[in-house]
Structures are given as structure tokens and as C-alpha cells.
Amino acid sequence: MTDRPKQVVVLGSTGSIGVSTLDVIARHPDRYQVFALTAQRNGERLLEQCLRFQPQYAVLVDEEAALALRRSLAEQNCRTEVLMGRAALVEVAAHGDVDAVMAAIVGAAGLEPTLAAVRAGKRVLLANKEALVMSGELFMSAVRTSGADLLPIDSEHNAIFQCLPRVTLGQKEPGDTPNGLLGKLGVRRILLTASGGPFRATPLEELDSVTPEQACRHPNWSMGQKISVDSATMMNKGLELIEACWLFDATPDQVDIHIHPESVIHSMVEYCDGSVLAQMGNPDMRTPIASGLAWPERIESGVGLLDLFKIGALHFERPDTRRFPCLRLAAEAFSAGGTAAAVLNAANEEAVAAFLDRRIRFTRIPAIIEQALVHIPVSAADSVDAVLQADQRAREYARQIIQAGP
Ligand code: NAD
Ligand code: MG
Fold first, then answer.
1. 330 occurs within a structural domain
2. How are beta strands 57-60 and 81-84 bridged, if at all?
3. What's the 183 CA to ligand 1 centre distance in angstroms?
């Protein structure tokens, strides 16, 4: 390689996606250099990462943790500069020396830094689906305006992207119909696969008493706690339905959810001539991460051979919306438009946190989200402030009803 290494920011570097991203980057020191690493408060892991990758900047949102990290790095003569607070996340994400930003903060907290990277026209590797779900139109129009290079990292969306002809996401052309992209490409539908999570076959009456430990024990993927609970309620697939509609300019009826318990096919695209293209692989996020980092080139990710002989058979089921009401709620919120998806997302974040804290039962999660959607009127999501206000209102409302009991 003759080019200088690309400068990469990893937002949320101490999390599951962050760690996998650094694993891929470490395999290609000639291609990528870490410019900044960020986390909320896990200073210990961030310290190890700074010593290993020697970034220009490390950001901790938590001030006390940032001060401790600054002292430890000075003791080890590490040149990394420590910044603190949420504004510093935005600062590093939009920094003029940066080429690519991995958006891997969990939840709404990732919106502002991710949007800053988009507005600065970076290559944006989007794992943080909540940022796009809550701000959909605003986010995609920022991509269009800045010309940011948006690459989906969520395994399903990365699979769909790989099964499409080469497209630049978000770049609508004048004269395109509102659902122009798929039509233009000859796509009939997207087949979005889902594992079904740990409770796919649990008797319905037992769902009331499942524990956070059971919910976080995903059959195929090892992930952060919040997305693990989202997979158990299938809100993850609901968020992904919304994510697919924004990324690929699709309507919900063009996206067909297929439960596929083996998680080998990461999603499929069906064309008007009847061809169905699938992207397959071991369930390991290093594949979509490497694909996004190097796109349209290919690089080693560390993921092993796919052993189809061992897997033997692939299965498919229709999702059961009685078992998984979150799927219906997400589709309804997307159709309602405006701030509804921000309300859905915020109420879900509050309910999931309360469930993980053992303050509510698992089956209250969809109930709380539904109440928030009914209670909070939809308004236009035409600015970041409007989105954040809806997010705040939904959180306050969800906290009130959570306090009322388990
Ligand atoms: P995680 O909980 O393991 O890590 C989250 C990261 O975000 C950590 O580095 C944490 O310090 C940081 N963070 C958390 N709250 C923050 C805040 N308020 N401000 C700043 N930083 C904060 O989560 P994860 O599983 O790595 O998921 C990250 C994102 O990627 C999520 O949006 C998730 O939906 C998406 N995703 C994850 C996977 C997966 O396999 N883990 C797959 C697809 C998509
Ligand atoms: Mg996914």
C-alpha cells in the first residue's frame, strides 16, 4: 500500500463492536491507524487500548474516570491526550484529520457524535442503529448534503448492502420516486433474517418470569447487554426494520422478516427476475466490520471458515407477533413518522435498563413502549432538538410508569 494509513475513530471502543473493530484494525497496521478511542466510563479497558494503539485522543464521558486515565497514561509515558465530556465525542468524530468513524456507542447517546461524523463527510461505519432510527430523515438528509460515505455494520444491513449492486447510500437523484432506490435496482423485496433470540420457543406463560441472565444468553451472537435484551424481545429486529427502510429507501412492506435460527444467512435480496442473493458467514461481527472498513476492497478479518457440513441444515420460520409485540410497535412507529420512532427507541432504552436492573418483568418492556407511543403525540422530527425533546419526554414518561411497579 502506498497511501498513508486511514485515520479511524472508534466511538464506543470498549464495547463489543469496539473491541471487534480494534481486532480487525490490529491486523492491518499498514492500512489503518487509530486516531481516537472513546468510552463512557470504562477507563481500565480504555487504558489498555491506548497503550496498544497509541491514539492521538482518548475520550471518556465520565470526568472522574477521564482524570484517572490521564494520570495512568502520564505514568506510562503515553502521548495520548485525554478529553472528557460529551462535547469531546463530537469534536473527535468531526476532526479534520479523520477519515473513518466507527459509530459503536449504544443507544441514543450515539446520535450527536454520529451525526457530527456524517456532517463532516466522513466514512461512517454505522453499528449504532438507534441513532438512525430516532433521527431517520434528518440523518439521511445529512448524508446526502455532506456526501458522507455511509456503510452499514449491522450484520443484516451489511449483508443487504453486499447483495445490492454498488450503490452510494442516501444519494437520491433528482426525479427519483420516494421509493426509487429498490425499484431502480430491480429489487422486489428484502428478506431480513433474525435468529429469534433465546425465547423463540419458550412457552408464552414463562416469558413473565425470565431473568436478565437468560435474556442476555443469545444462542449465536455475543453482544452488549442492551442489544441482547433487544434480541430477546425482538425489538432489535423492529429497530432493524426501521434502519433498513431508511438505509435502502424501502417501505416496511418491502422488508420481509424471516426467523432463521442458525444465523448463517445474514439477510437476502430478491430481484424481480426471481434471483435471491444471500450473504452468509459465521456469526462474527468482524466480517461486516472488515467489509465496511475496506469497502469496496476486501481484507482479512480473522473470521474462520464457514463449515456448512457441520451446520447441516438451514431453517426458516415466520415471526410470531403475539410472542414479539415489539415487531408490531416498531412498524407502527415507523409508519406514524415524525418523532414516533424516537419515542419508541427512548421508551425501549428505559424499559430495557429497568429490566436489566430487575425493576420490571420482561413482558412489561413492550407494554411500556406501547403506552409511551399512545401517550406522547407525534411531532415533526425536523431538527436534532425536536428529536432529543421527544426522546426526553418518552424517557420521563417511561420512568414514571416503571416506578408504578414491576
Ligand atoms: P456495548 O454495550 O458492548 O458497548 C457500548 C459502548 O458505548 C461502550 O464502549 C460504552 O462505553 C459506550 N457508551 C455507552 N453509553 C455511552 C454514553 N452514554 N456515552 C458515550 N459512550 C457510551 O454495546 P455493543 O454491543 O458493542 O453495541 C454497540 C452498538 O452496535 C449498538 O447500537 C448495537 O445495537 C449495535 N450493534 C451491535 C452488535 C453486536 O454484535 N454487539 C451487532 C449489531 C449492531
Ligand atoms: Mg443485526
1. no
2. parallel
3. 33
